[in-house]
Prior knowledge:
Blueprint (H helix, E strand, L loop, with lengths): L2 H21 L3 E4 L4 H13 L4 E5 L6 H14 L4 E3 L3 H11 L8 H20 L4 E3 L16 E4 L4 E4 L7 H10 L52 E2 L4
Parallel strand pairs: 1-2, 1-4, 2-3, 4-6
Antiparallel strand pairs: 5-6, 5-7
Helix pairs in contact: 1-2, 2-6
Amino acid sequence: MSENIDSLLDESRGVIAKAMREYAPDIAIASSFSAEDILIFSLMREADPKARMFALDTGRLNPETYECAEAVRRKFGVQIEWYFPDTAAVEELERSKGVMSFRESAANRKECCRIRKVEPLGRALSGLKAWVTGLRKGQGVTRSGLEFFEDDAAHGIVKVNPLISWDYWAVLDYVRREGLPYNRLLDAGYKSIGCAPCTRAVAEGEDERAGRWWWEDPDHKECGLHLPPTHGAGI
């Protein structure tokens, strides 16, 4: 393994070890079953065999994502804490605006994300002192200012970002070398995977999040799960 990845691993292990010492058992990783999340969870399990994972089932995930989730569950023996959107809210949205309203405007897309992702996240974070994410600085302009520990003012807890220094290829290289599960859509050119109707493969030379909400301005490509932080939080 390259010295660069060894250095990145040392950095990430240090962040995770601090976070687990300070906040366990009231800390969990929010997993979309990205390669980043699986890498992080493997390090969390090194630090604490009882490390927790939760996931949001929006009702529109790719079959490959569910397959990856099951592989993760079996690999680590983890009970994934699944959260789902409010049924009545989804029914009302689709009855009033149709099943594809998210393509009509940024406001409609964010409404869909709020119902399917943001509201369930709030329930998932209830009772936690900190949550862990797979965010990296290289994922786009909206994430270039990330820090390892941030105040999540929206939820009143600490957000931990252990992989901010990694790039996409280092993450994928490590996951493959260690034989960790990963979403097979990555092999088909998907570099960032969300809901199926809002995700596509990325062409050579495109930004790695170009396949998310590709019909929108890159400066707006967030779903509302990750709001602007207050830096210098936590430990």
